[in-house]
Structures are given as C-alpha cells and as structure tokens.
Design brief:
184 residues, 8 helices, homodimer, two-stranded parallel ribbon, 6-stranded parallel β-sheet
Amino acid sequence: MIYLFTGNGKGKTTAAIGTGIRAVGAGLSVLMVQFMKVKELSSEYRVLEKLERFDVVSFGREGFYLPEEELEKNPQLKEKGFKPFSRIDYQLAEEGIEYVKNAVLNEKYNLYILDELCVALYYGLLNENSVKKMLTDSGKDFDFILTGRYAPQWLIDISDLVTEMKDIKHPLNKGMKAKKGLDF
Amino acid sequence: MIYLFTGNGKGKTTAAIGTGIRAVGAGLSVLMVQFMKVKELSSEYRVLEKLERFDVVSFGREGFYLPEEELEKNPQLKEKGFKPFSRIDYQLAEEGIEYVKNAVLNEKYNLYILDELCVALYYGLLNENSVKKMLTDSGKDFDFILTGRYAPQWLIDISDLVTEMKDIKHPLNKGMKAKKGLDF
C-alpha cells in the first residue's frame, strides 16, 4: 500500500514517524529516507537511531535551498537565507531514490518512509518517471509512506490512502518562532 | 502552546506520537493520556513503553462503545459490535482528566498528549467546562497536543496550532481491512 501525507499543515513527517513506531512495535522493519534534510539536525533522530529496525538515512545538506527560478520570482526568499540549488542537490536526491530502489530490490524492510518526497518532486530534484516506476513496479509485500506538501495529482492517483494535513491555524503566521522539540 | 490534530483523516494520533518522539529527542518528557483506548492493544505501545521520558496511560476498556442515542439512531452500529456507554466509561474518562490535572499540578512533564480527547468530548464522556478550565488555567511552561475527530469550535479557538487531517482517499472506504502495524 502507498500512504500519502500531504498539505500545508503540520503533522506530515510526525505522522509518518508515528506510523513507523507503530510498525516497529508490530515487529516490522522501517527505513526512513529523507530528502532535502539532514537527519542529525532533527530532535527525533536521537530517539530513532537507538531503535532496532528503524533506520534513517538523509540525502540533503545543511541550509535552505530552492530552484534559482523560485528565488528570482521571490527575492525576499534570498533575504531569508535561501540559496539556489546546485548540482549537489540533484545528485543527493537521486542517490536517495537509488538507495530506496536498492533496499526494495533486496527486500530489506517492510515499510519505506520517503520523507519530503513530494517537495523534492515539486522542485524538480527528482525525475517523475523514475519515482513513478519505483513506486508502481515494486512488489506488494511492503508499504510506502510518502510525505511533503505539493503532492502532484499522479501521486495522489497511485496512492491507496491520502490525508491532506490542512493548516487551519498556525502560530508561525502570527510571527511566533518554531520551537525545538515540537517543530524540529 | 496547544496543538490540535483533528479531522476525519488518518494521521492524528501518529502525528502526536511522532511529535512526542521529537520532544523526547530534544530532552523533554512526555505524557500521553489516551481516552477510549486500551494502550496494550496498540502496536506502538511496545516501543513507547521502552522509552525513557515517554509515559503512556490509557483510560478506556476493550471493545467499541458509543452513546445509547447514537446506537438507537444507527442500528447498524449494533450489528457491527458497538455497545452502549455505561457508567464505567464516564468514570474512566473523568479519571483520565484528573490524572492529567494532577501531573500538570506537579509539573511532571513538558508535553501532554491527550489522545482522542475530542471524541470523548463529542460523545459527552467529559465535561466541557472542566476540560476548558484545565487547558486554559494551566501555566505556559509546557505544551498540550490534543487529538481526535469532531473538535468543537471552542477547542479550535483556544488552540495555538490546528491541523485538520482531511481524508482525501481511504482504502477502508473500498472495503479493505485495517492492517496491523500501519493502522493499529
């Protein structure tokens, strides 16, 4: 089965992690592959790395990066510290997909969490056809959880379960800062 | 801060658990109080019970219970195995709130997850004023995460962050069974 957690609200990655915890508790093994993130920068990694059967691998680098065109369209993003993608970002994302393909091929896990996959697709870091092929060619003895805002329609179409995490109210809109332990 | 995860889609409890894992990783301590659930029946409990600083207490009993009026209105629910609430269900829910109040009073945790609180309120197992008082009288040195569908407007109003988990696509709608390790 393919589960998809998308939308602009809080709770996508944490719902994937919570489901991963549930899977481990049921005796299953989990691989979480993170795109555009550095696992060591998240608080949850300190707990997850100690769990048996919950592996985390991240394919991002420190800092905030977006496509050059996005930054040209929204110059205020540059002021906020965003920098343009460079070759390494595309390479990292592609390595992430290769990592998953290889694990799937060797039937290493029961549940594959592809965190921020939708964002990596949206910003063109990943090739649509290669991701689609991996998700649909795979056998059915294991499950995928995909997360990230901006899920494309084709991803919704091939998913079995889709939840939209919809932002109804958010303190960051009121200028409050993200809080360690809750938000990252 | 009060975080609220509501809506009819999957991911509310798992997002709360994932955020709890994040909090533990950041060195905080977490209490999860579950209403209308038995913790031992969930796969995730086998992992959570082994974590330091993540306590889980549940105030429900095995089986599926709803208010008598709901069952009268929807007789097919009885055929599905739902039984009417009895005195014990009200007592258990109230004990759950007392347990939280006591822990809050003794400043025992940094994060309090009240799982299925909205459902317990919706079905009248809990007194609205008593819950409201507990949530708003409390100091600001700790955070709440509330989950469950049917969040009342007053709960949305007093929450700082609200995400609606919206069901876009769900395999159970197509008659597929819930899967151990992913759904419970």
